[in-house]
Amino acid sequence: MHVAALQWKVAWLDREANYARVRALVTDAGVPAGSLIVLPEMFATGFSGDPEAVEPEPGPTLAFLQDLARATGCAVVGGRAVRRHRGRPENRATAVSASGQVRADYAKVHAFLGWEQAAFGEGRRVVTFREAGAEVAPFVCYDLRFPELFRQAVRREAEVLVVVANWPAARAAHWDALLRARAIENQAFVVGVNRTGADPNLAYPGRTQVLDPQGRILAEAGAEETVVRADLDLASLRAWRQAFPAIRDIKGWLVPSVEDGS
Q: One of 41, 90, 116, 220 is an active-site residue; which one?
């Protein structure tokens, strides 16, 4: 599996500018067909509680993800805020196939402290999807601090854990440490995709990275706008899980199921 993770200075509440930047980054990087393209949390607007950041379902950002997938021949995962028919909006990570079909639509389980908890509802379901022969599980930003959530994905045989984020510079060291921990403890590849630049509230360090199941960094970025690319060797992951079968010893009673509460 080839992964292409994009980080850039997300334009505040400007969908068209962000859509254009994504297209340019993908084109300039020459991302090959068949890749998995990953975009940050709420990539079209920035991490905002403004009603303008929330879209109907289906909305323009879903249409953009589908168009990008079809144009590139790649599966795409990206973050978006969606207005539910009933209830509060959700902060989601949506995966679409190269044909534009929605493969997974994960609602962030852990809304961040403060305004996000007030403005957004929370999901109650871990989802996975199949891509390039691997089981992939998407998560959103603050979810990274809750290892039991990632255990749910591993119990569903996830091999690639994708975290889309707007993770602030003030806690960049936490980002690095937690991504590595999630990779090691779950014997999984981890793709952590963050934005760079600043919005009206926070500065962001970038630090997009791809880690292997032993916590080694395969590819990473600093604070620059870039596309981070890596090849994930699924055979090596499976060999490691077989040679050192720690995840086999997960106690089911310690990891209660997260059920769909919608």
A: 41
